Structures are given as C-alpha cells and as structure tokens.
Amino acid sequence: MQIxxxxxxxxxxxxxxxxxxxxxxxxxxxxxxxxxxxxxxxIAKQKAGTVILTIFVNPRQFGLDEDFHRYPRPFEKDAAMxxxxxxxxxFAPDAELMYPExxxxxVCTGDVASRFEGIKRPGHFNGMATVVLxxxxxxxxxxxxxxxxxxxxxxxxxxxxxDFNIDIQIIEAPIVREEDGLATSSRNIYxxxxxxxxxxxxxxxxxxAKELAAQGTTETEKILAEVTALIDSAPDTxxxxxxxxxxxxxxxxxxxxxxxxxxxxxxxxxxxxxxxxNGILELSLNSD
Length: 288
Ligand code: AMP
What we know:
By secondary structure, this protein is α/β, with parallel strands linked by helices. 37% of the residues lie in helices and 19% in strands. The protein is built from ten helices and nine strands. It has helices at 7-19, 35-47, 75-84, 95-98, 117-120, 124-139, 151-163, 193-198, 201-214, 220-232, and strands spanning 2-4, 24-29, 50-55, 89-91, 143-147, 169-173, 237-245, 262-270, 273-281. Strand 3, helix 3 (75-84) and strand 4 form a beta-alpha-beta unit. Helix 6 (124-139) packs across helix 7 (151-163). The chain is globular. It starts with a strand and ends in a 7-residue tail after the last strand. The structure holds adenosine monophosphate. Adenosine monophosphate is lined by residues 29-30, 36-37, 39-40, 146-147, 149-150, 173, 175-176, 183-186.
C-alpha cells in the first residue's frame, strides 16, 4: 500500500492507473477506521482493481462549536487497518495542500442539503460536497462507495454528481451495526460505558418504527410520537431531530404510501455526543 499526501501526486498516480486501464474505486473517510469503513473497502475491492482510501478530517465541514479538534486521528492504526484490508493507495492529504492560500471556490448545495443536518449544521454540506468533489477529481475514480449511515450526505452527493455531470458511479453500502444495533461510528469512542448502553435506544426505535410501518401505520406523526417517547425514556438522551422523509429529496412525509419507501432519520445527543442513524420504513403489502 502506498501512502500519498499530496493531491497533485494522487492525481498523477490516478491518471497513470487510468492509462493502464485500471478500474479505480474510492472510499472517502475521516479516519478512526471501523467495521463500517472496512465494509466499504470490501465492496470497493469486489468492484474495482484499484482501491483508494482517503483519510481527511475536513475542517470545512465542521462548525465552530463542533468536535474538529478532538476528532480521533489514530493514523498509524488506520494505515495498518487499510493495508490489511487490501487498500492500494491511502490518500491522506495535509489541509494546507487541500486548501492552499487563495482557495475560495465552494460547492453550493441546494434543497436536499437544506433540511435536518443542513439546519443543525450550517455550512456542513457545502464543506462536505466541496471536499468530496476534490477527492473525486484527484482520485479520478470510476466508482465511489458511501455508507447509508450518512443518508443525507449520500443524497446530497448523488444530487451533486447528477447536477455536475460527474463521471463517477455512486455505490450505496448498508449500515454496519454492533451486536446491540448501534451503528459503528468513529464518534462512539466519546461515549462512557453507561452512555454506550443507552445509545442502543437509537436502533431499538428504528426497529419499532419499522414494525409500526409493517403493521400498516400510515400516519408519520404517530410513528414519530412513539419513536420520540422511546428515545426520551432512555436516560442521558436528548433528541436533536426525528423525521420521516422521502429518501431522495429528504422532504418530510405526512403519510406513508403502500408503494413508497421512506427513511426515518434520527439525531440524538447521548450525553455530550451527537449520534445520527436512520432506517428504511415500508408499509406491508397487505396494509391499506
Ligand atoms: P466518516 O469517516 O464518518 O466520514 O465516514 C466515511 C464513510 O463511511 C461514509 O460514506 C459513511 O457513510 C461510511 N460509514 C460510516 N459509518 C458507517 C457504518 N456504520 N456503516 C456503513 N457505512 C458507514
């Protein structure tokens, strides 16, 4: 595995790979690698001959009061995990090389990015989309794998790729969870052991909502009320938002339709750690 820090070198390397007719897949992360990230790498390896993993804690997608400075950066461990997973190139650029003096152009995201995370984290999606576009340009990848864990991010990226005619295929990967259902996340290490136990309520409430939908509950207000009550009943939790949305536009839905597919979104504070999760809701076929 080769480690590259300079975007120009990454781009030149990628161009050489393309000249040799290599199919390139990219997996973009902020590091502190876990099973969720590795599942993306595995998909990348199945689909392409060359896998590029990016690790970059992007300052432009963090708010001033967020955890940019304390975000975990275990680079040596990450590099060992990436190598063991069969990554070919680990691209871990320096912020100064990504955003040199004079850098000023940003992706301006639209409607999909304006809701939920977009409201709670102003500027987040513009910063994220900008760095994702830079990684697409520098990795010259044919395929990019993203996790459904960050469902709104995925929808924003798909919109950008379509709107800008970017020549890359986006592949969606399912959410990897711990045994009790908590989605694996680099931020889970912030949780105390008691908070870690409480955090399982996110997945329990997703399962409950799925059940309600499968039993034929069409009113999203009713589903959200039960989800809210369940989360509120766990100590140390504070809901940031819950919502049921169209999975492409992220517009809120009032009533589930038998032919539709919807996404339940959760953002919950567990103590001082903010976790997001989501799950697909579908009415059972025999419900009215
Ligand atoms: P991050 O390092 O948190 O920015 O995540 C990098 C990529 O890994 C994104 O595409 C995430 O959606 C994906 N990812 C993070 N956690 C998980 C998970 N538990 N399951 C599947 N994909 C994940």
